[in-house]
Amino acid sequence: MVRSDPFEKKAGVPPMKRVLSHLSAEGLVIGSIVFWYFLSLELPEIIVPKPLNVAEQMWVFFSDVNYIGHVAASTIRVILGVFIAVALGSLLALLPHWVPMMDIIVHERIKPFLNSFPSVGWAILAIIWFGPSHGTIVFIMTMILTPFCLVNVSEGLKEIDHELLEMARSFTRRPLVVLFKITVPLLMPYIISAVRIAYGVGWKIALVAELFGSESGLGFLLQQAQSVADAATVFATCFAIVLIFWVGEKIVIDPLSRKFSHEKAVG
Questions:
Q1: 117 exposed, middle or buried (CB, 10 Å; 0-12, 13-18, 19+)?
Q2: What is the pLDDT of residues 173-187, one digit of tens each?
Q3: Residue 40 above 80 pLDDT?
């Protein structure tokens, strides 16, 4: 999966067009909410809850101590799953770089296996092997997210300047110095891209994994809401995840992406 940088400046786009683009995007959101409101007037609450009811339930998620615990549980699981998956995927991608004989093992055996193994299979096996627990949810996420990271970092290794690596090796015989001073910095844009993908997909996986066997988290709240046909809580849970994802992306991932894209451009 090739890296895409959303922060590259679009040359030739006038400021007025950018303003109109933002206004159109915000107008689409407002229009969707208005349409949702009028639709909720015509349909039962059990099918389409009113926007205000959903907003009130979302406020409960971030103000009530019990609900905050569920939000925190899912968030911590996602962060751990993403961190482990990115580390494991990057390690697998770098293995053939260090040991050429591992190339076929990683890219023609491990990568196809991880890419094609059903996500629900990991969930069922994890419940059988480990039972319901926090570690089980993190394991499921790690196994599903790792191939995304492996593919992205592998593509990054193909794109980096190998002549620069050869020059670095001519100055030092210590592989770790070359790895941390040259290889990893060159790969950082691709690693950040892998983090972005894993973070988004991770939230979807977390909900499914928590549905299979957990007594905490947003997936558990979804299961409870489904059992009593509480559509407002279902909507609120989904929108809460969108909000958490957006905040994490804007506060952590986007600044890192800008930082390393800028460093690459300067370099």
A1: middle
A2: 666 666 667 777 788
A3: yes
In terms of Cβ atoms closer than 10 Å to its own Cβ (0-12, 13-18, 19+), residue 116 is exposed
| Among 109, 113, 76, 106, residue whose Cα is nearest residue 91 | 106
Among residues 17, 1, 7, the alpha carbon closest in space to that of 257 is found at 7
- The token pair that represents 174 in the structure block: 């210590």
Is residue 219 within 8 Å of 211, Cβ to Cβ?
yes
Q: Contact, 58 vs 198, CB < 8 A?
A: no
Report the alpha-carbon angle 182-187-188, nearest 5.
Answer: 105
pLDDT at 223 over 80: yes
- Residue 141 in tokens: 């996420």
pLDDT, greater one: 17 or 199 = 199
- Rounded to whole angstroms, the Cα distance separating 137 from 77 reads 7
Cα–Cα dist 134/115, whole Å: 24
Separation between Cα atoms, residue 96 and residue 103, nearest integer Å: 5
Q: DSSP code of 160?
A: S
What six digits make up the tokens of 42?
Answer: 């015509």
